[in-house]
Write a structure and sequence with these properties.
With 249 residues, this protein is an alpha+beta fold. Helices cover 45% and strands 14% of the residues. The C terminus is likely disordered.
């Protein structure tokens, strides 16, 4: 039960569960104030509620059943239902990502790096090609090098590792975004609207570095600003900022 609750909290299911809880509270108030028409509607909804829940939670239920199917029967009772959040990365990972982003920006190489936080991005990870390699400056630059097989799409970073490349991200339909933002920036905002991740964007046109988080984008940031934002994910309770190492050459 504990692992089930942790899985719900660390996935998109939690947002849907909160909506269901709100509806239940609404019907409780309807019962208190004797709103008979609303209660009648609620009774009719109960009969189809199970079907509705299966349809709404279909992606999460499918992933859970797939993972059960891949495991031996003996291990099911000791199974951690889903990984309970991403591990925090170390300072070397931060320096590698920041250094790579600004080196790519200097030569106007576009990049899109999604740094996973507490909510796992498995459904987006599966849209790309599995990498599972330690985050290094050289690896990131090589992935986003123009005309290479992996340069198109996003890279997902979990902990200290690049887990997937060429991933497809949802585009934001926020009409308030600047019209001069391209697909790469809209994808960064889109993934930040449906998860708690931090997405770093390197513009191919201008070479500027931006980041998106919680549905908003901060454009043309300096190295120390980006490091500070990554540190907030790494250590939410600390405000220390590390200094980037000197670039080679």
């Amino acid at each position: 039960m504990y692992h089930l609750l942790v899985w719900i909290k660390n996935s998109r299911v939690w947002m849907l569960v909160r909506g269901v809880i709100f509806i239940l509270i609404f019907f409780v108030f309807a019962a208190i104030f004797e709103m008979n028409t609303i209660l009648w509607l609620g009774e009719k909804l109960v009969s189809v509620a199970v079907t509705v829940l299966i349809v709404v939670f279909q992606p999460e239920l499918r992933r859970a059943l797939e993972q059960i199917g891949r495991r031996k029967i003996k291990s099911i009772f000791t199974w951690n239902l889903l990984k309970t959040g991403a591990k925090k990365f170390d300072d070397t990972t931060i320096v590698s990502m920041v250094t790579a982003c600004y080196e790519m920006g200097a030569v106007k190489t576009g990049a899109l790096i999604v740094v996973e936080n507490d909510m796992q991005l498995t459904e987006f990870e599966r849209t790309g090609i599995s990498i599972d390699a330690l985050v290094t400056r050289q690896l990131l630059i090589n992935i986003f090098e123009k005309n290479t097989p992996l340069h198109d799409g996003a890279v997902i970073v979990r902990g200290d590792r690049v887990v997937s490349a060429t991933c497809y991200l949802p585009l934001s339909d926020n009409m308030g975004l600047s019209k001069d933002l391209g697909t790469r920036h809209r994808a960064a905002v889109g993934i930040s609207e449906v998860s708690d991740s931090l997405t770093i964007v390197v513009s191919e046109e201008t070479g500027t570095v931006s980041y998106a988080r919680e549905g908003r984008i901060v454009r043309d940031v300096k190295e120390d600003e980006l490091i500070a934002e990554l540190k907030r994910i790494q250590n939410p309770d600390e405000e220390d900022v590390i200094e980037p190492e000197k670039r080679e050459g």
